[in-house]
Design goal:
This protein is of the alpha/beta class. It has two domains: 3-226, Spore Coat Polysaccharide Biosynthesis Protein SpsA, Chain A, CATH 3.90.550; 229-444, Rossmann fold (3-Layer(aba) Sandwich), CATH 3.40.50. The chain is 38% helix and 20% strand. The chain has 13 helices and 18 strands. The protein has helices spanning 32-42, 58-68, 83-92, 113-122, 167-176, 186-192, 215-225, 252-263, 282-296, 319-347, 367-388, 405-411, 422-434, and strands at 3-9, 26-27, 30-31, 48-53, 73-78, 100-105, 128-134, 141-143, 146-149, 157-166, 198-202, 228-229, 243-247, 267-271, 301-304, 350-354, 393-399, 441-444. The strands form four sheets. It has a seven-stranded mixed β-sheet with strand order 5-4-1-6-10-7-11, sandwiched between helices. Helix 9 packs parallel to helix 10 (319-347) and helix 10 packs parallel to helix 11. The longest helix is centred in the C-terminal third of the chain and has 29 residues, at 319-347. Bound molecules: cytidine-5'-triphosphate and magnesium ion (MG).
């Protein structure tokens, strides 16, 4: 049985009141529509996408689809006057006898893979699924600005999407309520007609719906901080005969990545200051890459795990020491990316950079380290957009406190089990390289 993702992107966003509907507003360089489509396109559990759009904006959508080359969209339908109508148009277009339909508001571009997979798992047991989060605020019922009642909060949740159904059940619910327009969503139709139990999957606070103009500011912040867990399903066997270059590959995480990719048949070239490759020199980095290319005729992946961690108050540190740290941690990555582009263009390859959990907020004593790591995230987000035209992907790995020589030098011996093992970071890094993600921060955490 197929899983259809239905994305409702019709409507005009009257509460958002912009010149263009909210689905076409850009956040982090992409429209809300593109963000939402990308989630469904990348999620393995979705077989086909049905996109329902505002009829007057079809040309807009067609441009977006041409640019992105989504492979799963099989239908582009004109929506109706209401959300209910748009949903009905989408399900009516499916001729399969039975299917799973996963209906999502385009205006919720922060849907996580976790929610999608929980929904699809729940569809094995239930025919109707809603997604909701507990209401932390007290909900009050009012009439003309005066409280009428205060329902018990423990029994209240706030509904989100996706909402998921067996196709036949939802078709029946719509048929029974053809002329009743008093619904904001599809679960309401099931309940009104008492057709099935609706199971609730836990949503997330981030899965916001862009409704009012101020929501776009919140969305922008959420995107700055958004990170993913690594794509688990990629097959490392695909590294066979790949040419991998690792800057910082002679110790720590870089060395682990080298060993792990070699296990799967990759040919790996490690560069570091130990073997005379100074990452702060563009020419040296360029020469190293050229030698690898000349020997193999291609380069598939480039990783930069080289970095230094210096602790201390800015006022107490030597300026040359500070500059050196910034050159290694920040300029080094710029050198590596810039010098790699000509080669990776040919293979449609990938780049990995490394950040640290301190990138989201500066910390005393780590001012230069954490700010260079924030710079790396911002850099890779920007470059992901620039390099998309060349089919090169670039992502940033964000490992939790990790058992590496760099950390040992800075913090000494730490309690057994409190650190992430570099082998886990290596697997996450390689799977990220194989995925079609780009511009993402990938969190890697130890098992708890
Ligand atoms: N939607 C739709 N067809 C409609 C109305 C809404 O497909 N006729 C979609 C919207 O694109 C949105 C989702 O349903 O992704 C949730 O609707 P809402 O946030 O209410 O969007 P609008 O109806 O466009 O906004 P408003 O209610 O402020 O006019
Ligand atoms: Mg609406």
């Amino acid at each position: 049985m197929k899983n259809y993702g239905i994305i409702l992107a019709s409507g005009i966003g009257s509460r958002y009141s912009n010149e263009i509907p909210k689905q076409f507003v850009k956040i982090a360089g992409k429209t809300v529509l593109e963000h939402t489509l990308t989630i469904f396109e990348n999620y393995n559990g979705i077989d086909e996408i049905i996109l329902v759009i505002t009829p007057g904006y079809r040309h807009f959508v067609e441009d977006i689809l041409l640019k992105n080359n989504y492979k799963k969209i099989t239908k582009l339908l004109n929506g109706g006057d209401t959300r209910k109508e748009s949903s009905y148009i989408a399900i009516s277009s499916i001729t399969d006898e039975e299917a799973n339909v996963i209906i999502h508001d385009c205006a919720r571009p922060f849907l996580s893979e976790r929610i999608l997979s929980d929904c699809i798992a729940a569809l094995e047991k239930y025919d109707a699924i809603d997604v909701a989060i507990p209401s932390t605020d007290t909900v009050i019922k009012i009439e003309n600005d005066i409280i009428e009642s205060i329902p018990n909060r423990s029994k209240l949740m706030r509904g989100q999407t996706p909402q998921c159904f067996k196709l036949s059940l939802l078709k029946k619910a719509h048929e029974l309520s053809r002329n009743d327009n008093n619904f904001t969503d599809d679960c309401g139709l099931i309940i009104k007609n008492n057709l099935a139990k609706v199971f609730v999957v836990k949503g997330s606070d981030e899965n916001i719906k862009i409704t009012y103009p101020e929501d776009i500011y919140m969305a922008d912040k959420l995107f700055q901080l958004k990170s993913l867990t690594y794509p688990q399903n990629e097959e490392l066997e695909k590294f066979k005969d790949k040419i991998v270059v690792i800057f910082g590959g002679t110790s720590g995480i870089g060395l682990c990545i080298a060993k792990e990719s070699e296990k799967y048949g990759a040919k790996v070239y490690c560069a570091s200051s130990r073997n005379g490759c100074d990452i702060t020199s563009y020419d040296t980095v360029s020469e190293f890459l050229k030698t690898v290319y000349d020997q193999n005729g291609k380069i598939d992946y480039v990783i930069n795990s080289a970095g230094v961690l210096k602790i201390g108050k800015l006022q107490d540190r030597q300026i040359d020491d500070i500059k050196k740290e910034i050159e290694i941690n920040y300029i080094g990555s710029i050198n590596v990316v810039k010098a790699s582009i000509p080669y990776l263009k040919e293979t449609h390859g990938g780049i990995l950079l490394f950040t640290s959990s301190s990138y989201t907020r500066g910390r005393a004593l780590y001012s230069t380290y954490s700010s260079t790591k924030a710079g790396i995230v911002n850099l890779s987000q920007a470059l992901a957009e620039e390099l998309a035209f060349d089919n090169i992907r670039i992502n940033t790995i964000n490992p939790e406190r990790c058992a590496t020589p760099m950390r040992f030098r800075a913090f000494g011996k730490e309690p057994e089990g409190s650190l992430l093992q570099p082998e886990k970071v290596a697997v996450a890094s390689l799977k990220t390289l194989l995925s079609n993600l780009t511009g993402q921060v990938i969190d890697v955490k130890r098992e708890r």
